[in-house]
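Suppose a colleague, Dr. K., hands you the sequence of a protein chain of 103 amino acids and asks what its three-dimensional shape might be. Before reaching for any lab equipment, you can write down a predicted structure in token form. Begin with the sequence itself:
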Amino acid sequence: MPVDELKARMDEGARLQVIDVRRAPEFRAGHVPTAEYVHLGDLEAERDGLDRSRPAVVICGSGYRSSAGASLLERGGFADLYNVVGGTAAWLNAGYPTDQEPS
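The predicted structure, expressed as tokens, is then:
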């Protein structure tokens, strides 16, 4: 999913489940608003805590880790699944806002 489509769907109020699979410091430094953090290394073990009934949008820094994360979720039964092309870097390059976590 391109970042423009993600932003448009978020603006429309779509019930997306945005899952950021980067390392914790990367997530804290800035992430897509409403994104939830699940480190890629923990995703397989924690996927049962995610909502399979909602579209899952996986994002990382550039798209590589999120592609792996999307594969893990697909094997876990997620059907409505998207990988963000270009990741958070593309989101930032498009000038879209991010949320930050306190350090």
